[in-house]
Amino acid sequence: MTLQACGLSYARGRRQLFTGLDFEVGAGEALRVAGRNGSGKTSLLGLLCGLADPQHGEVRWQGRAIRRQRDVFHRDLLYIGHRQGLKDDLTALENVRTSAALAGRACTTAQALSALQQMGLGARAQLPVRSLSQGQRRRVLLARLAIPPVAPLLILDEPFTALDTESVDVLSSWLEQQLAEGASVVYTTHQPQRLQARRHHEIVLGQDLAGEGG
Amino acid sequence: MWAVFTAVIQRDVRLAFRRRADVLTTVFFFIMVVSLFPLGVGPERELLRTLAPGVLWVAALLASTVSLGRLFALDHADGTLEQMLLSPEPLSVIVAAKVLAHWLVSGLPLVALAPLLALQFDLTGEAIAVLTASLLLGTPVLSLVGAIGAALTLGLRGGGVLVSLLVLPLSIPVLIFGSGAVGAHTSGLGASAHLYLLAGLLAGSLVLAPWAAAAALRISVD
Question: Which of A43, A182, B5, B198 is the most buried (most CB within 10 A)?
Answer without folding.
Answer: B198
